[in-house]
Design brief:
mainly beta; Immunoglobulin-like; four-stranded antiparallel sheet; 2 helices; 7 strands; about 30% strand; elongated
Length: about 150
């Protein structure tokens, strides 16, 4: 895999820090936990994250500016019932971040059957929506007379 050194660009540009940070972050993204992103309506979306084994109290969701962060930290439990011979269910802590587009807001979240569903909606303000402009048609052009000084 090729890697690019962006350090020279940092020295010769102003205001592109966010772009370069995004490019630096394109390293191999961790695959845990797996997730789906669905479009459920014209302006509605859902992110589903597989969080089997996590309770609601062990999960946190934070929306700040255009970033949605989902964190999970499993509480260590001491089971005196027996000894675990094989642990295939991952119980490690995770943090998953999603970059949200402008005007995308989190409506809510629910935990169901080991899946954390985060509902999103894109609400564009009226001032930003396209609008039709009426054309005032006149049958005759308006003539402006000017006075010429003699």
């Amino acid at each position: 895999m090729r890697t690019f050194d962006l350090a020279p660009l940092y020295r010769s540009t102003v205001g592109f820090d966010r772009l370069f940070s995004m490019l630096d972050g394109f390293d191999a993204a961790p695959g845990y936990p797996p997730y789906n992103i669905e479009r459920t309506g014209e302006n509605d979306y859902r992110i589903s994250v597989a969080v089997a084994g996590f309770a609601e109290s062990e999960l946190s969701i934070e929306s700040k500016e255009n970033t949605l962060t989902i964190k999970g930290e499993k509480q260590v439990q001491q089971d005196n019932n027996g000894e675990v011979l094989y642990q295939g269910i991952a119980a490690r802590a995770f943090e998953r971040q999603f970059q949200l587009a402008d005007y995308v807001q989190v409506k809510g979240a629910n935990l169901e059957n080991g899946l954390l569903h985060v509902e999103l909606v894109r609400e564009i303000p009226e001032a930003k929506k396209p609008r039709q402009i009426a054309i005032n048609g006149q049958s005759k052009p308006k003539v402006v007379e000017s006075k010429v000084a003699a």
